[in-house]
Specification:
This protein is mostly helical. It is built from seven helices and two strands. Strands 1-2 form a two-stranded antiparallel ribbon. A hairpin with a 6-residue loop joins strand 1 and strand 2. It starts with 9 loop residues before the first helix and ends with a helix.
Length: 150
């Protein structure tokens, strides 16, 4: 919401909690971008395109999208070292939290189950549409929170 210049409220806090949980579990920052534009690119890689209804209200849309609402990532040209814009026409998710969290082959079945529960919870916390994002009350009832580890 902040990067796009959208109104924000309590749903943004759940996104922040998701970022903290991701970092605690992996030891890495969820969206380690060098700029707002780069962080938005990483978010799109995880969640896919920003809903059109949000883009219509986004005050900072022009910083990240062209006139056809196509995401444009700002990168450094490797030869000239100048900033260039590259359009990403089909922003489909390319990162899968379930695969990331369970790639350790030494995990027990119980650990794998908990990791998959966390991936599901984070998927709900990282919903691009704040109106569809999981609420705090719902998150507290999620199996990742309420199920005991065996």
């Amino acid at each position: 919401e902040v990067i796009l210049g959208l109104p924000y409220s309590h749903p943004m806090d759940l996104w922040s909690v998701g970022c903290c949980l991701y970092e605690l579990f992996t030891g890495n920052v969820a969206f380690p971008g060098r700029s707002n534009n780069h962080m938005l690119k990483l978010m799109l890689e995880l969640k896919g395109p920003v809903p059109k209804k949000l883009l219509r209200r986004a005050l900072f849309k022009d910083n990240h999208y062209d006139v056809t609402d196509t995401f444009s990532v700002i990168e450094e040209d490797p030869v000239t070292k100048k900033s260039i814009r590259r359009l990403i026409r089909d922003a489909k998710p390319s990162r899968d939290l379930a695969k990331i969290f369970t790639r350790d082959s030494d995990m027990s079945d119980a650990e794998k189950k908990k990791a998959l529960q966390l991936a599901d919870l984070l998927d709900k916390m990282f919903n691009m549409d704040p109106e569809k994002r999981i609420t705090a009350a719902e998150a507290l009832q999620h199996p990742f929170v309420v199920d005991r580890v065996e």
